[in-house]
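Q: Sequence in, structure out?
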Amino acid sequence: MGMPRRYHYYPEEWQVLNVLSSGGAMTLSAGLLLGGINITWALIAGKKAPANPWMAKGLEWDIPSPPITANFEKIPVVTEEAYAYPSQIPSPAHH
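A: Exactly. Output:
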């Protein structure tokens, strides 16, 4: 009882499933199209991100991109924990 392809008229027992499948395909297509537009827009008109856009404290943010062979020219001195962020981060509206 599988449904053959390329029907111009679907049997009644398959109609609801066909409509759901078509609606799902259109929803997925719209999401992919929006994602593609967003990526294209960002590549063409987007601002370049700074070297450490999140002000992260880990050592991986202190090396250039692309990194040099040994990552660091000399052994870095660590003075605080990698995740030693303040407990209260101000919202962007308070800056």
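The chain has a mean pLDDT of 84.
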